[in-house]
Amino acid sequence: MLNIQDNDIIVQLNSQDIERRLSLYQVFIYLYEGHRDLLNDILKLDNLSQLSCSGTKAYHLQGVVDGSAIYVTTNLCDNQTQTLQQPQHIWTIGRDRSNGVCVDDQLLSPHHAAIQYVEGEGFFLIDFNSENGSFVNSEQVYQPVRLKDGDRIRLGSLSFDFFLNQTCRILPTVTGDKLKNLLNYQDIKYSSDDTVKIPLTHCYKINLESEKLDLSAKQKSDILDLFLKSRT
Questions:
Q1: Is residue 223 a contact partner of residue 215, using CB atoms and an 8 Å limit?
Q2: Domain 60-165: CATH class, spelled out
Q3: Distance in angstroms (rounded) separating the CA atoms of residues 103 and 123
Q4: pLDDT at 91 exceeding the cut of 80
Q5: What's the rounded mean pLDDT across residues 110-126?
Q6: Across residues 40-59, what is the average pLDDT?
């Protein structure tokens, strides 16, 4: 049971909360009247961040160093993952269609920023004095910033993860026993008007009871391709 003293405390706390809310409201009105565009942009960014947490597509850009081949892969363009090669190793980002990475985002400048690869140094983010700024891990970029694997980049309201791939491992050859297991248990589906299942044993004349499978490299590759397609 609440006594009279407890009720007085609750009333006092409620009054303080109301006063605090009124003060914040007055501050908000003052800021909105003087900086309406800025607050609108903040509200847009907040709405976009909430959408990104609700299951929308996660965007990324990956810089790849594969020997002498330097390129990026990203799903920022045309809503699909693509490999983008550029002879100068400069990938411009912005709203204008002349950019290597063109994104239709009203908070992006027409020519907002670029990612550049410098030999022996790595990938860098350069801001082109954009209106809404470029950020790496929430820090605004004023000078070229070297990017690290896992960095979070925001350009205007566009946010994406940067990944760096400089390592390639050659995996061991799949052994005959493992291939035999794949052949034993997987069927292949060919897409057509009528779905047809064709066992892999019909593709190649293979004796599954033999201890050793005599397959060429191309046959092994084809078998794995067919198996992976059957899983999709």
A1: yes
A2: mainly beta
A3: 20
A4: yes
A5: 96
A6: 58
Please compute the mean of the pLDDT values over residues 54-72 and round it to a whole number.
86
Q: Edge-to-edge, what's the strand order for the sheet holding 101-102?
A: 101-102, 90-94, 113-118, 122-127, 145-146
Query: Which bin fits 67, alpha (ψ -120 to 50), beta or left (φ > 0)?
Result: left
pTM above 0.70, yes or no: no
Phi, psi of 177, rounded to the nearest 5 degrees: -60, -45
H-run or E-run covering 218: helix 217-230
Strand residues in 76-194 grouped as ranges (E):
82-84, 90-94, 101-102, 113-118, 122-127, 134-136, 139-140, 145-146, 152-155, 158-165, 187-190
> Which one has a higher pLDDT value, 117 or 6?
117
pLDDT number for residue 11: 56
The structure tokens listed for 128 are: 């082109």
d(CA 216, CA 225) in angstroms, rounded, equals: 14
Query: What's the alpha-carbon Rg for the chain, to the nearest Å?
Result: 28
Encoding tokens for residue 44?
A: 């847009």
Give percent helix, percent strand, percent coil of the chain, each to the nearest 5. Answer: 35, 25, 40
Q: Which pLDDT belongs to residue 7? A: 59
> If you search the block for the tokens 């291939």, which residue do you land on?
179
Q: What is the side-by-side order of every strand in the sheet holding 82-84?
A: 82-84, 69-74, 60-66, 158-165, 152-155, 134-136, 139-140
Q: Which of 80-89, 197-206, 211-220 has the lowest mean pLDDT?
A: 197-206
Q: For residue 50, is pLDDT > 50?
A: no
Place of tokens 């350069």: 126
